């Protein structure tokens, strides 16, 4: 298996991961990435080619690869950006098969693209790694290292506007009025649009632990440290991996009542309207 991805901030140093040199800026990364992928695919043959999202699938088509599987994780913001809708429709039409992470996405695809063949769409729920399990001793040690005393709310994920992190912060301060020793830990990095807002939060909210990038091996320990995991996306999600990981680590979940969260989590979370 070969994985083709962009070279963002560091080298992965894996012979099976092909990193394409890119411009590390929003939108500008896409052009050198496409050229690199097209060049690589034209010089190599594979039995199966799998594109991870419509933007990632487009260079597969441009490389003149006729048969491929596409992953459509969600329908994103295409209602606001017409090109997104055109691209998703084009990729869905030309894919040999389409994999999706929830029946909600299949419903939305068929609703928006009436001519799409439902028989080539396969729902494959996301899986989690075996490392996601309770780590109580390591979690207690981590809590001491961070200087935390009292119960912990935790969020781990991308710091994007639609993830509702600002609402999590507001709810934390409301809860803190009743529970004075409550703590909030936020793990993850901002995207291009939220970098300034994230920097402002770090300066403004001194009592919140902004821990930034968490090494993969440490993530289950952070989940285990939380008394409640909170995620509050308000726009769209294709699956919702982080609440599943948190539950596997023994941490209860509060999340927004998006239909996909309700599908995936069933009665294993408390749902709040976004």
Total number of beta strands: 12
N-to-C SSE string, H for helix and E for strand: EEHEHEHEHEHEHEHEHEHEHE
Q: Beta-strand percentage?
A: 15-25%
What is the rounded Rg?
20 Å
Calculate the mean pLDDT score and round it.
93
How would you characterize this protein structure?
By secondary structure, the protein is α/β, with parallel strands linked by helices. It has 10 helices and 12 strands. It has helices at residues 30-42, 54-62, 82-94, 103-112, 136-145, 165-178, 195-204, 219-225, 241-248, 259-265, and strands at 3-7, 17-21, 50-51, 69-71, 97-100, 121-123, 152-156, 183-187, 209-212, 228-231, 253-256, 270-272. The protein has a 6-stranded parallel sheet with strand order 9-8-7-10-11-12, with helices on both faces. Helix 1 packs across helix 2. The mean pLDDT is 93.
Quick summary of this structure?
This protein has 274 residues and is of the alpha/beta class. The protein contains 10 helices and 12 strands.
List the helices and strands and how they pair.
Elements: E1 3-7, E2 17-21, H1 30-42, E3 50-51, H2 54-62, E4 69-71, H3 82-94, E5 97-100, H4 103-112, E6 121-123, H5 136-145, E7 152-156, H6 165-178, E8 183-187, H7 195-204, E9 209-212, H8 219-225, E10 228-231, H9 241-248, E11 253-256, H10 259-265, E12 270-272
Parallel strand pairs: 1-2, 3-4, 4-5, 5-6, 7-8, 7-10, 8-9, 10-11, 11-12
Helix pairs in contact: 1-2, 2-3, 5-8
Provide keyphrases for this structure.
274 residues; alpha/beta; six-stranded parallel β-sheet; four-stranded parallel β-sheet; 10 helices; 12 strands; 17% strand; globular
